[in-house]
Amino acid sequence: MTRQKRSRHRLKRAVAPYLYLSPSLVIIGLLMLLPMVTVIGYSFQNSAVLRRDPSFAGLKHYQAIFADPVFWASLWHTLYFTCMSVVFHMTIGMVFALMLNSDRINPTLRNILRVLYILPWLFTAVIIAVIWRLLLEPNGVVNSVLMQMGIIGYKVEWFSSPETALHAVTFANIWAGYPLFMVSLLAGLQGIPKDFYEAADIDGAKAYQKLIFITIPQLMPIIISISLLDFIWTMQVFPLIWITTGGGPIYSTEVLSTYTYKLAFSSYNLSQAAASAVIILLISLGLTLFYIRYQKAR
Amino acid sequence: MTFRIKPAMLKMAAAAWLLGATSAMADTTLEFTQWWEPELPAGSLRKIMDDFEAANPGIKVTLVSGPYATTRDQISVGAATGTLSDVVGLDGAWVNNLNAQGALADMNPMMDASGFDKAQVADIIKVDGKAVMFPVASFVYPVFVNLDLAAQAGVTKLPSTRAEFLEAAKKMTHADKNQYGWVLPLSLQTPSGVQNDMMSWVWASGQSMMADGKPALEGKPVVDMLTFVKSLNDAGTISPGIATKTEQEKVEEFVNDRVGMMIDSLAHVNLIRKRNPKLNFDLIPVPVVENYSGKRGLPYASWGIGISAGSKHQEEAWKLVQYLMSEKVNAKLVSLANAFPGNVNAKPDFVTSDKAFGKAFEIFKTGYLANEFTGLPVAEDLMTQFDVQAQKMLAGEQSPEQAAGNAQKGWMAKF
Questions:
Q1: Which value does ipTM take for this structure?
Q2: Does A47 fall in a domain?
Q3: What's the pLDDT score for residue A1?
Q4: Nearest-CB residue to A246 (from B81, B188, B258)
Q5: How far is A230 from chain B (nearest CA, A)?
Q6: Which pLDDT score, from 0 to 100, does residue B23 have?
Q7: What is the total count of domains within chain A?
Q8: Rounded to a whole number, what is the distance in Å from the CA of B241 to chain A's nearest CA?
Q9: Is residue B343 part of a domain?
């Protein structure tokens, strides 16, 4: 009887953590795993969603995607868009964070700059897209200013020309995303002990040496974490590109998200769209694993 | 006392429940999914449904309304899962896919059984011989001309041929003043510019982009149209930013005196007047090829209606469709929507009270409705493919013949 009681008690103790976790597990299962598994399932079916009795398609849809030159173009555009965005987010974020952390700037001006610099973060993607469409349209303010300054001699169609469209959407995304870096790095800067800089001053270090040997190494964990997260998020950007260019002109701004959207809602090829979504998932998963490993290593 | 009242009350409640239940059982509730309600004056579609319910005791209608894009997705999913509403609002571009899914009922037997007069409807959209959709309201696309810009440019006679249009567009263009003759929206986000602003030139001259039910984009009509559009572009008469311009921006440019001419939906007349009450404009049919004197095809978009193949209340659903297609009700509905009627006998009130609409109605009556994308498989995808080829042509990467040839290849893969 005592042994029975003991074993029941042990069982209760073993089960208890799972019972506590069960609400979260159910929610994760329903909201994350189930849709993911469903989409993966669709990618192996013919006429998924559109037919009640879809047949098994094997890897057909993946083969079709890999054989499509537009997919490879969109993959390249995604990488360009993402890498340029992350690099410039980091650079601009760092410059502005250093500026806002500097004692050499008047506190009032610093507060004003703080508000101004964070503004892009307050706008939704749709607003940002509309703002930049208006600014960069052929008769817009940017062309007007550049022409007045003699930098360009004709009205550049920033979003409508295949030569400039990808750079223009990347620029808009850089503008929209640097405040995340700025805020994170500013918090990091404020956490660096002043002693380091005082010791460097005593050693006669110059400003750039302090930046390279103290500031950047101290901020490195933040830089890597935020860069990885920004890489994952930027890779999935959809509304900004969709509203500004729709993936055009021709296919010059087609990225994986717009490519997948068109497969699903323009071609109604939901199976192939699911296969494309799975490819994006795998790329994101790889980056996420890298991020988790980095966090664990810390 | 208490014990006496209680059984009496129970009996009364039971009787009331029985009565309610009986009447509820007698009622058939139809579900009607559409995107029209948000686009009509508040409460007006519900009022029409209330009138229908009063005229057809025992039938109730539940409106399921949402924006166009949401409704499209909802209907696609409903068709796949077998949960499509009894009556559905349809766009001609969707019907081929929905029919392939077996989601739409053939209305031919219903028409025959009820003695429906087929001559009274403007069009019946058929796929594989099945009557799957009636256009309830049609929004035609004439050419809007800014009369002040035309007068300033010395355009005294509004164009009726393509050559005249090109000349007028050249005269109205003053790039230094940000003023252009024509506007062409070819954004890939909404590729409907291919249908409304490009293919409309083909249909206007009584020509076709199809032959024997297959794409014929390499034929003379489409190649000539592309050559014509290219000539407008080469002459610098098209407002810049073509590849990302949307229909909304097209209207804005017209409203702000920045373009002289545009092909646009008649539904935008009130919006244009509201945005710029001083704008002096007129409507003309889409110009035709030289020496063409036949009937002009008038591009249109429509609010279509169909019945779900899986509906358990097809008889009642057909009553609702008939009601909306009847002369008086159709006239009332299209008057509210500023559209042209699906019933040829219906006459919306705005055509007599408004000069612009009156003129458009004349254009409508002398021509015929033409939209060859209606009923095609993955119509939006076809437009996107054509759009990309047209963009390449306008960017100087290929000739009109190559653009037509490449689009043909893409389209054939979808057929």
A1: 0.81
A2: no
A3: 57
A4: B188
A5: 26
A6: 47
A7: 1
A8: 5
A9: yes
